[in-house]
Specification:
CATH class of the largest domain: Alpha Beta
Number of domains: 2
Shape: globular
Oligomer: single chain
Radius of gyration: 24 Å
CATH topology of the largest domain: D-Maltodextrin-Binding Protein, domain 2
Structural class: alpha/beta
Strand content: 25-35%
Number of helices: 11
CATH architecture of the largest domain: 3-Layer(aba) Sandwich
Distance between the termini: 84 Å
CATH superfamily of the largest domain: Periplasmic binding protein-like II
Number of strands: 12
Helix content: 40-55%
Order of helices and strands: HHEEEHEHEHEEEHEHEHEHHEH
């Protein structure tokens, strides 16, 4: 009788060990976000309409500096790429819910982003600038002189954060493209947007030739964010460093009138000091 009980206990323990092993193997596989992306065959990238990083061409296809890099990375890991337009204010929720695999849209590295996402290293540099009618620029030389102006900002953006910090009267809109339209239409006196977008979209020969900027409110760094703990961030960061060194990023930036200041520009500036 005892031997039967002992045998039963041994069998039970063996089953538990085997089950634990199976769970461990499964957990190990599931823990690889990169493997999960490769298994489903598509990298879903969360973006907004943000030239020159991600925007649509005349045929409705997503193009831009970030879009080209995302396509290149997807090809390297053997998957297709899908661009999913999101509400920027909900980017962390979208990422954690699994509706997108990463946020790759000229995203500024902030404390919130660093805490909520697994981020790559810096791949481009940026600043938040004040865009207004070009014929008004001479009247506003600094943030203090703009205290009575109304500002359009993208909800949840770095531009919104610095505008709030400056104490500006703000109107939060869906994206930076909408912020520019507010200024062009005269419904806001100015907007705070990324310098990369201002360089690409304002001034002579652009869609907003009568708009411009002269004042920067902050300097920033761009990163790509994956779900916290994702191993895909490190895999992408390795490629980013290669692209910076071999000139790939500079070549792509040149396609967009060098509106994107790649990270090596910062390194060169530091070496010159």
């Amino acid at each position: 009788m005892k031997s039967k009980k002992l045998l039963s206990v041994i069998v039970g323990i063996m089953c538990m060990v085997l089950l634990a092993g199976a769970v461990s193997v499964y957990a190990g596989e599931a823990a690889s976000d990169l493997a999960a992306i490769q298994d489903k065959g598509v990298l879903v990238v969360g973006i907004t309409d943000f030239a020159p990083m991600d925007y649509k061409d005349e045929n409705g296809n997503w193009i831009g500096f970030d879009a080209e890099l995302a396509e290149a990375f997807a090809e390297i890991i053997g998957v297709d790429v899908e661009f999913q337009e999101i509400d920027w204010d909900n980017k962390i929720l979208e990422l954690n819910a699994g509706s997108v695999d990463c946020i790759w849209n000229g995203m500024t590295l902030t404390e919130e982003v660093a805490e909520a996402m697994e981020c790559t290293g810096t791949y481009a540099l940026n600043a938040q600038v004040v865009v207004m009618k070009a014929d008004k620029l001479a009247d506003y030389a600094d943030a203090e002189s703009m205290a009575d102006l109304s500002f359009a900002v993208e909800a949840g953006s770095a531009g919104e954060a610095v505008a709030q910090e400056a104490g500006f009267e703000i109107n939060s809109v869906q994206n930076q493209a909408a912020a520019l339209m507010e200024v062009a239409a005269g419904t806001s006196d100015a907007c705070v947007i990324d310098k990369t977008m201002a360089d690409a979209m304002t001034g002579e020969g652009t869609s907003y030739a009568d708009l411009g900027y002269a004042v920067s409110l902050s300097s920033e760094e761009y990163v790509v964010g994956f779900r916290k703990g994702s191993d895909a961030a490190a895999a992408l960061d390795e490629k980013i460093q290669e692209w910076i060194k071999d000139g790939t990023m500079a070549e792509i930036s040149a396609k967009y009138d060098n509106a994107v200041s790649i990270a090596e520009a910062r390194d060169a500036a530091e070496e010159a000091e």
